[in-house]
Amino acid sequence: MTTGDTLLRRLPRVRAGGLLPILVILGVLLILVAIRQPGFLAPGSLMSFLGRSAPIILLAAGQYFVIVSGEFDLSVGSLVTAQVVIAARLIDGEPDRTWPVVALVIVSSAFVGLVNGVITTWLRVPSFITTLGMLLILVGAVYFWSDGSPKGELSEQFRRFGRRAFEDVPVFGRVPYALLVVLVLALLAIVLMRSDFGRTLVAVGDSPRAAELSGVRVARTRTIAFVLSGVAAGVAAILLGGYSGVSFQAGSGLEFSAITAVVLGGVALGGGRGAVLGAMLGALTLELLFALMNFSGVSGTVRPAVQGAIILLAVAVSAARSPSD
Amino acid sequence: MSAQSLLAARRPVPGVYLALVLTVAIGWLVVMLRGGALFNQATMVSLLHVAAGLGLVAVGQTLVILGGSLDLSVAYVVSLSTLVAAETMNGSDTALVPGVLLALAVSAGIGLLNGLLIARFRINAFIATLGVGLLLKGYLDSNYDGPAGATSPSLVQSLGYQRIGPVPVSFLLLLVAAVAAGLALNRTRFGHHLLAVGGDAEVARLSGVRNQRVLVTAHVLCSLCAGLAGVYLAARLGSGAPRVGTEGIYDLESIAAVVIGGTALAGGRGGVAGTVGGVLLLASIDAIFNQLEVDSFAKQVVRGVIIIAAVAVYARRTIRKGRS
Fold first, then answer.
1. Maximum CA extent, chain B
2. Is the ipTM of this complex over 0.85?
3. 3-state DSSP call for residue B232?
4. Per-residue pLDDT averaged across B88-97, rounded?
5. What is the CATH number assigned to the segment(s) A16-318?
6. Is the pLDDT of residue A324 over 50?
7. In Å, how far from its chain's centre is CA B60?
8. How close A169 comes to chain B (CA, Å)?
9. Which of A98, A263, B136, B200 is most buried, judged by most C-beta within 10 A?
10. Any idea where the domains of chain A sit in the sequence?
11. Domains plus CATH for chain B?
12. What does B151-188 look like in DSSP terms, one character per residue?
């Protein structure tokens, strides 16, 4: 243990929450993919990959807001499932209903986030209990409401966000709508984290007591983080529903992928450290890793194990490197 | 947290038994008005069977929560244990003892891993056990599609179905485990140290408690309990079931039973008696819903609400006590 400690401390000191480690991992994975599957890096297929990764990138950004403020949101996967199933039933193939349902999905996702936040902050229920309870409630409710199998279908207008692209774009080949959506929202997230709200959010995660004493409304700040996570899940549901269609499995396990991505991006669990860009790059890295595993013929069922190993490794490394504790 | 931990280290048996009596009384009345019967032999037996499985997991969960830790991997340990037991036994009675011992040994090994990650590598318990849980899930998902192995017939007959009057042997096993855990907590040095570590880890360390060893022991015991629940479920189902733990939501339900039983999630206060009450309460609600033929998905919604509400009620009470 002691030798391990000194060894780790002797490594070049990277600023906690810095982006260098994740960029290095991403670079290495890109090289490995390029060796195994050279065609993958052609503009068209690379752009499609980025579009496919959009939902998990959004979920990672949403999860980042919650984690950096010192909490967890385990309900996002079930929220995605619920929204996809609900949207399909409400639209029921009618193109006219697309926009109202898109609005409903986002507003109701924000509401679920609000409920998570209020229960966690005002009723003082630990967030993993709140959001695991919410997971049970959402999954149960959506199964109950649809009698055990999804009904209705999404309109083509709804699905285009997740599956269509601007074709024949010079240089890029094709630009999926989902990629544009994620770029705009990622930019907004980065701007948000540079605003007063972003600094407050990190301060709350770093030390809720200190933040409270300096006049921050901790409960409100954390609740907003949960709302942002809910909205991210709503948008991810629209993209995922479009891309992969309606099923009860649409969002299953995505909460763990999002947490893995956030940890991989150098964000400290427990709050207070890390960048939203890191979390989103973490999501991209995770997707790239899964793509590489796929090219190498590794079964998709080991994904949870890979995520578990990444979470443990990342947290153990960061725990060993922080001198205090 | 430090302010709370200065409070009395133990409380009397919590109000969960009052809640249990009220719930059963109301349930009995509602079921009777609908023309059913809550207290017939079949319902009681199935209630106690449900309680036995959940209870074994929850007794172990109580130990780690008292120590200020937590175990989210129990659901996967339960599933894995059913498979190890059933595949080792492979339907023969001669392999009964090796099967049980191997299942418990594997479970204890996972507990050791959890404990070391948390106590030695200082990884947050939630994350460490989530990570270990995901590792196990990956293993289970990639190696099993459905039930596998076969439990020894004599274990199925005894632990799975044998009962004395309306009381299943498995429920007696739970009572034995609960009494053992209670004695360990109240009568042994390990128990006192565990409560001290959960109350205030720094104070415990300064008073000479070996925090790491205590926490690791608690985690090994917790996983052993989950492994025992797995052996029971293998006996009940007749084979190993790769998803029985997650479908039973043993992770969240066991934590809920512990909290409903009056043990503080932050650690240091509470006990096994309350947990058994919490388990009986959850099992009674389950039995009442079954009698009322509530849709199983709707039941899950109500369960989620109950779990959040129960934790919220105790959280409020802790805040009030902390302030007064």
1. 61
2. no
3. helix
4. 93
5. 1.10.3470
6. no
7. 6
8. 40
9. A263
10. 16-318
11. 2-323 (1.10.3470)
12. --HHHIIIIII-EETTEEHHHHHHHHHHHHHHHHHHHS
